[in-house]
Amino acid sequence: MLPYRVRFYDIDSNQHVNNAMYFNWMIDVLGREFLTTHVPKSVVIRFDKEVEYGHEIESHFEQIPVENGVKTRHEIRMQDQIYCEANIMWEHK
User: Which pairing describes strands 69-78 and 38-47: parallel, antiparallel, or unpaired?
Assistant: First the structure.
């Protein structure tokens, strides 16, 4: 788990976090070693609630071994509520 504070450049013109930032938070927690040895094969993401400027969120994940690769399950949370979740299938480089 890694905590993040939403910054000015993370938001769009509607004052909500840009969708790409959710993905960045999800990927960042995986670490350099994992990211340099794996590539994403598919991503399924669901946005449940909007995150706004100044909010403090946490990026949680679990790694699940599967046939021919790895699956990661992600949640962006704030105060134990899920704001965004995703499943990413990875393969080794």
Answer: unpaired
Architecture of 2-92 per CATH?
Roll (3.10)
pLDDT tens sequence across 3-12: 999 999 999 9
C-alpha torsion 57→48→43→27, nearest 10 = 0
Give the pLDDT confidence of 24-47 residue by residue, as tens digits.
999 999 999 999 999 999 999 999
pLDDT at 68 over 90: no
Cβ contact 69:63 at 8 Å: no
DSSP for the chain, please give it: -EEEE--GGGB-TTSBB-HHHHHHHHHHTT-HHHHTTEEEEEEEEEE-S--BTT-EEEEEEEEEEETTEEEEEEEEEETTEEEEEEEEEEEE-
